[in-house]
Amino acid sequence: METTPTQIRDRLGLLADLACGFLESGQSGWRTKQILSADAHALGLEGFNCTTVGRVVIVEAHLPDGSNVTVTTCADALDLIDCTRSLRLHRLAQRIEDNADVAVSKLDELRDQIGELRATVTPWWAVTIGMTLLAFVIAMQLGVGWQAWVTASAVQVVTALAGQVLGRLHTPHLFTIAVQSCVAGVAATLAVKLGLVDPVGAAAAIAVNWLLLVPLPQIIGAMNDVIDSDYLTAVTRAGSVAVTGLGITVGAALTFELGELLNMEHPLLDELPGLPWYLALVFSAIGAIGNALANGGWLKLLVPAAVIGVITGGVNQALLVAAGFDTLWANAVAAIVLGVVSMIMAARTGYPQHVFALMGITGALLPGIAVVSGILLEMGGQSGGAQFAGAATICIALGTGVAFGAFFTQRMLPD
Fold this sequence. Notes:
Radius of gyration: 23 Å
Helix content: over 70%
Order of helices and strands: HHEEEHHHHHHHHHHHHHHH
Number of helices: 17
Largest sheet: 3 strands, antiparallel
Shape: elongated
Distance between the termini: 29 Å
Oligomer: single chain
């Protein structure tokens, strides 16, 4: 029996909702198109095409008379990652592909299921626990004292609570980031004045929290979009990164002004103490696990997280210690390897590629020392611009390296 235009439109509506769910869960645009194309083929849609432009999703297919029908919708966000939700959507898409006849007879039920999945979120307390563990481990990687580790964790909890309050008030993203970065600075400064941590430890705590505000998924996604020639989406993601950077800059300016008002003295260190390579690997694994928890991975992702953390940290340490690379190039090459590994893991599990990349980056590659040095210089009355610029360059190199490795791996993997 020939498919009617109404049936074709209904099936496209299902696929459009599914695409929005994937984008809102952290899946890349190309992977979303790949999954939808398989479902469209199973559903008997001829000439199917899916286009994502920023948050806008456009799906189309041929009608029986040869003309096209198009359905357009919009995802709620691009900067969120939820591993569990993405995996459930992936399994639902697989059921549609494997049992297309059943899916056709239950389109409304399937759309309701997709709507319910899109409405689910990882509990804020789970995200806070994961990010707090991540802050603790990153502070440990900086080689500062245990007081700094505890301070970084405590400050992370405070900034997370501030983010929750502002989120409930529907505060614009720029103001939310500015307030969170300022809260981090004030909390760490207060810890110094109370004698709970020294200025170097406070700088480390602030640096960790500011780095965790950087939208690394957007940087990676923007690089992927550039490679796929989706420049409008890349600009959208880059705009989100720029807004976050502006918010952190505002918070940093207020933090440094507070330090001057309180006449705080900060030592100028040429180099922060480092960690032996074996401890760096251990902390890389633990940091990756913290990221998995923060992104809704729960127990299923703990082992993959540890593996990808060790792989990334191992490559980075081999380049830094054995090969003598500088930090920028060591991180960039390690990011390329991370892109390859994350793509393979994503293809085999159904989780977003970005989340595996984030596990490796936050576990082993964040430029914490550069940010700490910049903060100490600024609070000591000197310019830390070079250090902050170096940290920004490393973040861009990480996003580019991951996208580069993922691109070539994607081309080699079977559809």
